[in-house]
């Protein structure tokens, strides 16, 4: 009854009759205050969740929910540094060594005539020449000069003299010729080279070659002097001399063999310096059979310290072109100068120098220096050299075949954030039908060992601090790829590991991070474009196994003065006979729940379960029954309920205070079996305050 109705009744009574003590009897009445209710919709709870998506069920026409989390890693290629090789800088001193000079042309040294030898007898044509006895003659020394050289430090050579006896007298056995070096005539040994001996007689008009002398180890000039000791035979009768007899003579021919020297000032013929040099390959315990070079250069610094120019040819048999031809480079290097050759190795195939498919152990450098012949005398020594310094860039390979020691490729972490965002919920549940599928992809022609870790993190929504985490670890062997990638799928479910993927998702992770590495080793081949990558999918029907009660807390509201006026508040304890809260529920969810209704004068602790003073805080309890479900577990009928929650006298006093705050919590307990949800599933509840009033007109 309204206040206006009351005054109309009182006015009518006053007009219609006269009473000595007018008063009205007391009566009971009631009124209701409709508070804000709430609708807990599965579709709205999951609307902002990219993790959970809907799919139309063909049989029922209803949208059912599925959990789906997926991501993929970046394609990982073998690090450029792992497909490379570097050799240390190498210097090769290629000495000329013992070399040959041009073989000297035999030199003739004129001797003495019969007239010169017997000048004391004054021999004349037609005059008888007396009988002479055998005698030893020592004609004046003779000199001979070779044009081909000036100085020789001889490693090996021989010298002999041919004595041509054109005299009318014979020469007896034992003739000697002392050979001197005119350039060393003032030395203590007077430049003695050796003594040449003839061990047989030399009849008139004949020639005889002496024994050879060994010049090895001797230093000689090209100017030689010959001292003769000639044992002439005598005559046994008087000889009448002719003009030819008077002019008859002897002469010598000095013959040198081919000459090998350690050092020479001479006309130098073309020389060949052929050397094979090697440099070890540093491949960090990898063994290469073949490798196609993507980029890299080799620098060759050539220094010619000789006094003769050279054509330098360097062959690198480890590097072949598409026609299997070894790399060859040439350079003219002038005397006493240096040159640089830079060779671009891109596109070349690197392999063992004998190209038999075996492992590469060294880089081989075949060096061939061809010197130019000289027309002038130049100094040249065995220690003179052509030196080659090799500086090789790091060679990066396009492809490689061989045996690789363990090589690690780090998989770029896969980070998936903002996964589960279930607001206003507490508690935990599991999705028992979850499965995690990993797809490993390998383009590399090597077997690969994959170590992966999947970690879920739950962060506090306010502080962003990690409050829980679960990690799964796995190791899988992936077969070698090749021209087409090799893929392997691994499915993990609740039984695959401890903890399992179900345990990981049970913490409602805000983010999932997948880390890992691929380890490559053994025999195989790889290209720099080959990749390894991983993708994963976590999926399941949204079938929920509740482990700990799930608590939904609705929004805090206020009972305003327009709903309960200040005047009514003042009379509550005296005039209100009963106050109850009526909860009208319509449950379209496959699970029941516990319902708590909170009233409090303190907004800060509205939803706490502690009550210090029942006149300042009230908590009322009820239960909501689950909706009916079909054989598949989906809701097929709504469960309606009316829940009357009565306040006792001490609790009623709370309505005398203002402001007054209220709200509700819906708690779902653990379930023995998983439950399934559809997009239409919801729980609606409306809240009504019902006041029963003992009306006393004297109080109004």
Report on this structure:
Strands 5, 23, 24, 26, 27, 29, 30, 33, 36, 37 and 39 form an eleven-stranded antiparallel β-sheet that branches. The longest helix is centred in the N-terminal third of the chain and has 14 residues, at 3-16. This protein is mainly beta and 700 residues long. It has four domains: 32-46 and 548-699, Jelly Rolls, CATH 2.60.120; 72-80 and 402-541; 90-96 and 271-393, Jelly Rolls, CATH 2.60.120; 100-266, Jelly Rolls. The protein is built from seven helices and 51 strands.
* Envelope shape: rod-shaped
Low-confidence stretches: 1-20
User: Major β-sheet, in short?
Assistant: 11 strands, antiparallel
The CATH first-level class of the largest domain comes to Mainly Beta
Q: Let me know the number of strands.
A: 51
- Helical fraction: under 10%
Helix count, DSSP H or I runs of 4 or more residues: 7
Domain module count: 4
- SSE-based structural type: mainly beta
- End-to-end span in angstroms? 12 Å
CATH topology of the largest domain: Jelly Rolls
Whole-number mean pLDDT = 85
What's the architecture of the largest domain in CATH terms?
Sandwich
**What is the CA-atom radius of gyration, in angstroms?**
60 Å
